[in-house]
Amino acid sequence: MVAAPPVAVPAASTRERPSDRGWRGARHSWRQHWELYLLMLVPLAWFAIFKYVPMSNAIIAFKDYYLLEGVWGSPWVGLKHFQAFIDNPVALTLVKNTFLLSAYVLLAGFPIPIILALALNEVRQGLFRKSVQMVTYAPYFISTVVVISMTILVLSPQLGFVSDALGVIGVPMPDLLGRAEYFRHIYVWSEVWQTAGYSAVIYLAALAGIDPGLYEAARVDGASRLQKIWHVDIPSLMPTAVIILILGVGNVMAIGFEKAFLLQNPLNLGTSEIIATYVYKVGLLSSNFSMATAVGLFNSVINLVLLLMVNAVARRVTGSGLW
Amino acid sequence: MVSAVTRTQVAEPPEPRARRGSSVPGAPRRQDRPRRMRESGVDRVFLFLVYLLLALALAAVLIPLIYILASSFSDPLAVSAGRVFLWPVDFTLRGYQTVLSDPQILTGYANSIFYAVVGTLISVTLTVAIAYPLSRKDLFGRNVITMLIVFTMLFSGGLIPTYLVVQSLGMLDTRWALLIPQAIGVWQVIIARSFFRTSIPDELTEAAQLDGARDLRVLWSIVLPLSKPLLAVIALMYAIYQWNSYFDALLYIRDSDLQPLQIVLRNILILNGASGGMSTTDAVERQQLANLVKFSLIVVSTVPVLLIYPFVARHFNKGVMVGSVKG
Predict the structure, then answer these.
(1) What is the 3-state secondary structure (H, E, C) of chain B?
(2) Residue range B119-149, pLDDT digits in tens
(3) Does B184 touch chain A (CB under 8 A)?
(4) B305 vs A142: CB contact, 8 Å cut-off?
(5) In chain B, whose CA is at the least distance from the CA of A289?
(6) pTM of the model
(7) Residue B300, domain CATH
(8) Which residues of A touch B222 (CB under 8 A)?
(9) Does pLDDT of A164 surpass 80?
(10) ipTM strictly over 0.85?
(11) What is the CATH number of the domain that holds A224?
């Protein structure tokens, strides 16, 4: 290994010079670092092919896509598919289901990790704290398929222990998975079960970074534990929490396909059919590529607008945003 | 529990030593931190509630896991009769025998190992190849490229347009479809870039350059050996992603010989497809065995991830931290 030199060398090229801008800078940079540019070539091609080509392929939302004609050869149809989607009575249900499900996820999934982190932070370092942290973190590593299967098994009226527990107190077990009104609760609380411990980690790190002087000052002022949480911990968590909330709200319409699809059955479709699962069914199962792309694009655009709006509001209100 | 409340409320011991003895049950009090001052009664009740909350969280996560584990070793009749909770009843290994003799499951297992290993190698290589140049402060155009990459996080073409790309590349129904289209994670690129930027001193790079090393040599001989923690974090992230994902296989793979374990799991666990290794013909018994197989299968598929988890968790935390550094 090369040892670090005792003195910094001024002529070295790792620092940007003001003159290195414009085409001269580009030429200079290329001569110096052509190896790095070549290194980036494959990943950049990957981004072009798997991220930007799909974006341009999305124009089939404005066309009638025919396999033989290809993306560019298919005839333009304007907003036909968007119109068809909006006129379809299903659209309203889909948007409503998607929005309500995400909002519920956010409502439960945002505060619980914060509460968990605050609680863990009150407890001294030791076996108990370590085990709570390790155990609550673990479900994050379990696959969605397995989490859903576990949920189904545990809540099953025949097999699960929940029905046995209810049986002890004489309450009959409803078929939770077969009833549309329970779908959102099952989705959200299995999500919380799986991710709360993981999401708490980032808050724990923020709490660990708090200046001990603040606690000292609070102690001198005779603050109770609750007051310390309220006046020291929570303000310190605010910047992190705001960013996570923005990301959450910004993703409200982008809720994942995987889980809803796995939890779906014919009996709960009324609440479990969301935009993502609809796009999959229309697009790949019914091969209506243009329609599915239009619905997906509609959703992506709403989402992007939401994210920009929330970010703007957050910047104005709290002074911190994503960018 | 009730007595614990009253004790914490009543006890207002004058000296620290006595207080240490009367801690809330289940709460190890190893060392007294600066918080040595007298705790008021309110604080003690509050602390008790905190412990209670955490104990409930612990139980809520742990009980379903133990229940699955216990059921997987129990006679299926005992499970459906509701006699199994946290300890196996009528111990049996039949579920595991069936799982481990099922060719479909074994193929899925082998495929998933392949996808995890090869996919992770590809992903880590590509991630480093883009993240390292972008971390160099003297590289012209790095900001534009970074923005183009981050933008893909905010907006995407969508499911079908991506499918069309994979289709036109002839990757449908090949192993490539699971290895390439999701190979790079933007988040991992950001983590890696921040790591290279903050953990590799500029002076080191400059010294190597003075010694005549070109960029690739610097990356290979200096940066990568210093980046083992980072490589561990992103490799584990990719590996766990590969092991756990099923959606890409659902989209792109039809051939059952190429399916990863998660698809097999979905077929058996959620769609209630029969697993091939069942030898019995009696319908009732087959149903019982099918239930038992579900529990065993969950354990078998999840154990590898949970076994490495304690080693991984520490690194993952670090990864979350590195990624949270802005800029």
Answers:
(1) CHHHHHHHHHCCCCCHHHHHHCCCCCCCCCCCCCCCCCCCHHHHHHHHHHHHHHHHHHHHHHHHHHHHHHHHCCCHHHHHCCCCCCCCCCCCCHHHHHHHCCHHHHHHHHHHHHHHHHHHHHHHHHHHHHHHHHHCCCCCCHHHHHHHHHHHHHCCCCHHHHHHHHHHCCCCCCCHHHHCCCCCCHHHHHHHHHHHHHHCCHHHHHHHHHCCCCHHHHHHHHHHHHCHHHHHHHHHHHHHHHHHCCHHHHHHCCCCCCCCHHHHHHHHHHCCCCCCCCCCCCHHHHHHHHHHHHHHHHHHHHHHHHHHHHHHHHHHHHHHHHHHCCC
(2) 999 999 999 999 999 998 888 888 999 999 9
(3) yes
(4) yes
(5) B160
(6) 0.82
(7) 1.10.3720.10
(8) 1-2
(9) no
(10) no
(11) 1.10.3720.10
